[in-house]
Amino acid sequence: MKKVTVIMPCLNVVQYFKECIDSVVNQTIFKDLEVLIVDAGSTDGTQELALFYAAKNSNIRVINSEKRSYGYQVNLGIKEASSKYVAILETDDFIREDMYEVLYDAAEEKHVDYVKANYDRFFVLSNKQKLFKKMRFPSKQLDYNCVMDVTKRTDISIYDYYVWKGIYHREFLINNKIYFNESPGAAYQDIGFGQILHSHAKRALYLPDSLYRYRVGREQSSVNSGKGIIYNRNEFERLLHLQDEYELFMPGVYEAMLSAFIGEFGQLDAPTAASDHNILDCAHWIVNHVEEAIRSGIISEEMICQDLGEDKLLQFRRIQKDIPGEMEKHVRMKREQRRQWTELSYIEEPIYIFGAGNYGMNALRLLDSCGVQITGFLDNGADENKQIAGYDVILPTNRIVGENARVIIANKFHAEEIRKQLVDMGVDEANILEYKN
C-alpha cells in the first residue's frame, strides 16, 4: 500500500500543469505516492500532458471524470484511492519537495484524522517574477504540533477552509461520510467539506512549516463579479440542510458564513453587482440567516467581536441596513482607488515603495495589476543584495531617491514618521502617497 494518494482535479490548466506535476514527481517520497489525475474533459493539452507523465510513472493514473465538478472529481479520487491517507493538490499550484513526507510522518507519529501545514501565496507579476507571501493561521489560540479536538472550535471553523494544505485519513473520511458537494464547476465546495470535517475531527494536527504554494489571481474575475457570494450561499444552504445528519457545530458554521460573506463583499469590483438580482438575493439570504442566528442565541455579537473583530461586526451592520447601497459605494470606492493608482503608470519619474514587509508586497501586487512599474523598494532595515520579486530593496538616501521621485508608503504603523523622513530628505510632499491595505 502506498503512503499517500494525491488527488489532482484538473480542467484546462496546461499553462500551469507541468510545474504542478513536476513538484509531485520531485517529492522525497514520490515512490510511496499514488497520484490520481482526475480530468474533467480538458481540451487544451492538459490531458495529453497528464497521460505523458502517467506513461513514464507506474504510480500515476489518469481518470476521466464524467462531470465538470471540482467536488465530484475529488470525491471520485477519494473513492479510487488505495492509500491510508489522501491529499488534494490543485493543478495550478505547486508544493515543497518534502511536503508529503513531512505530513505523513507527523500523521503516523500522532495518529490523527488529518494534519495540515501553513502555505505561501504567490502572484506572478508582469515581469514574470513570482511574489511570495507567507501565510500563517490567523488564530492566536492555535497550538502548533499539538493534537487537538476541533469539533467545537469556532476559530477552526472560521479560518481553516483550505483543503489542499494537508492530508486526511481516508477511512476517517469514508466512515463519517465526509465528501464534497458535487455542484457544477469550481464553486467553493471546500466550504462544506471543511465544516463537516471539523465537526468530526477529534484528532487534528497543525504544523508551522510552509509546504504549499498557492497561486492567486487566476480566478479573480469571477470573485470580483460577485459570484463568490452566490457560491457561499449555495454551500452554506446545503450545510443547513445537513446540520442534523452530520451534527454540525452550528456556531462555527454561522460565524464562518459571516466571515466568508464579509470577505467576498470586500472583493466586489463589478458595477453590475448591486443590480444583479441573483447576487442580491444571495446576500439577503446570508444576512438574514446570520441575523436569525444572533437573535436565537446560536451566536452573539460578543462572540463575533471576539472571533472576528469588532470591525467585522460593524461592517456587517452597515451592509445589513442597505445591501445594494453599500455594494454601490464599495465598488465606486475601489474603482476610484484603482483609477488613482493607474495614473502612476503614465509618469516617467522613479517610483518607489517604502516598506518591504507584507504591506509593501501587497502594494506591489496592486500597482502591478494597475500597470505601474516600480523602480524598487526603500526600507530602513534593508539588507545588502536583498530583492523582492526581482526588485532591489535599498536604504533610502537623498542621492538615490531625489525630489521628483514618487514614493508610496506601505507601512501600517509608522506612515507619518516615514513621511517626515522623506520630506527631510527633500522629497516633494506632493509626491508622497500612502498605500492602505
Description:
The protein has 437 residues and is α/β, with parallel strands linked by helices. Strands 1, 2, 3, 4, 5, 6, 7, 8 and 9 form a 9-stranded mixed β-sheet that branches. The chain has a 6-stranded mixed β-sheet with strand order 12-13-11-10-14-15, with helices on both faces. The protein has helices at residues 14-25, 46-56, 70-80, 99-110, 154-159, 170-175, 190-200, 220-224, 227-246, 250-267, 277-295, 301-307, 310-321, 323-342, 358-369, 398-401, 415-425; strands at 4-10, 33-39, 60-64, 85-88, 94-95, 114-124, 130-135, 166-169, 204-215, 351-354, 376-378, 387-388, 391-394, 406-409, 432-434. The protein has 3 domains: 4-218, Spore Coat Polysaccharide Biosynthesis Protein SpsA, Chain A, CATH 3.90.550; 227-337; 347-434, 3-Layer(aba) Sandwich (Rossmann fold), CATH 3.40.50. Helix content is 45%, strand content 18%.
Secondary structure category: alpha/beta
CATH class of the largest domain: Alpha Beta
Beta percentage is 15-25%
Averaged pLDDT? 95
First-to-last CA distance: 48 Å
Domain module tally = 3
Count of individual beta strands: 15
- Quick one: biggest sheet? 9 strands, mixed
Using the 3D structure, state the CATH architecture of the largest domain: Alpha-Beta Complex
- Overall 3D form: globular
- Radius of gyration of CA atoms, rounded to a whole number: 23 Å
- Poorly predicted segments: none
- Helix proportion: 40-55%
Supply the CATH superfamily name of the largest domain: Spore Coat Polysaccharide Biosynthesis Protein SpsA, Chain A
Which fold name fills CATH's third level, the topology of the largest domain? Answer: Spore Coat Polysaccharide Biosynthesis Protein SpsA, Chain A
* Number of continuous helical runs: 17
